[in-house]
Amino acid sequence: MKAFVVSLSLFCMTTTVAVADVVTSSVINSVQAGILCAPDPIGSVPAPNTVAGTTHIIEAEPEFVATITTVPASLGVGFGVKAQARAVDGISEVTMVVTHPPMGPDAVTLQSFQTRINGDNPSLTFYQFDYVYELVIGTWVFTAMSGDEALFSASFEVVDPRRVPELAGLCGYLDLLS
Fold first, then answer.
1. Strand locations in the chain, DSSP E?
2. By C-alpha distance, which of 74, 173, 82 is closest to 124?
3. Tens of pLDDT along 144-168?
4. What does residue 165 show for φ and ψ, rounded to 5 degrees?
5. Does the structural domain 2-173 have CATH classification 2.60.40.2390?
6. For strand 149-159 and strand 70-72, is the pairing parallel, antiparallel, or unpaired?
7. What are residue 40's phi and psi, to 5 degrees?
8. CA distance 164 to 118
9. How many CA atoms lie within 13 A of 108 on its CB side?
10. Among 88, 140, 165, 174, which residue's CB has the most CB atoms within a 10 Å radius?
11. How much is the pTM?
């Protein structure tokens, strides 16, 4: 798993697939979900509660290519949530919990990592498909936790890329549909 936390500006695309199913708490000012093309990492940090054991560090902020929650199961595609806290200082020590269908040889269904949610500008946390074993079709849920409090939760549906041909080519995976 490669998850990220960055600030983000948005570019919206019209499409016929599902829009975000998001639930937020009163401490969150805004949440937006979407898909993006995975940026090149410049490093990684340990994330022991993930299948890969690390998360990427990236230099540039990726933009959402679509603000939808139907995600093609394709290498190089990322999906996630842009959130902003009501408090200007933001919320530190946030645990992002990602649940999904069974993945890898151990059939892992839950991964988590540490992040924060900014208050002065939106923060982005996302998952990108780096490895074939990650391409599991079904419902994925991102839940941001602060202690025992759920700050927000967003659901995504990862599908066979042939189900969303209008997204083909956005991240350079058009050849995978043939």
1. 2-6, 21-24, 28-37, 41-46, 54-58, 64-66, 70-72, 77-85, 91-103, 108-117, 123-128, 138-146, 149-159
2. 82
3. 999 999 999 999 999 998 888 777 5
4. -60, -25
5. yes
6. parallel
7. -75, 130
8. 32
9. 16
10. 140
11. 0.84
Domain ranges of the chain: 2-173
* CB-side neighbour CA atoms (13 Å) of 116: 12
Q: Of the candidates 61, 56, 19, 18, which has an alpha carbon nearest to the alpha carbon of residue 36?
A: 61
CA geometry: angle 36, 39, 40, nearest 5 deg: 160
DSSP label of 163? G
What pLDDT was estimated at residue 22? 75
Residues 6+ apart with CB under 8 A from 64: 8, 10, 11, 12, 32, 34, 35, 36, 82
43-to-2, 28, 58, 118, 156 alpha-carbon distances in Å: 11, 29, 7, 22, 27
Query: Under a CB-based contact definition with an 8 Å cutoff, are residues 2 and 75 in contact?
Result: no
The rounded radius of gyration (Å) of the Cα atoms in the chain is: 15
In whole angstroms, what is the distance from residue 102 CA to residue 108 CA? 5
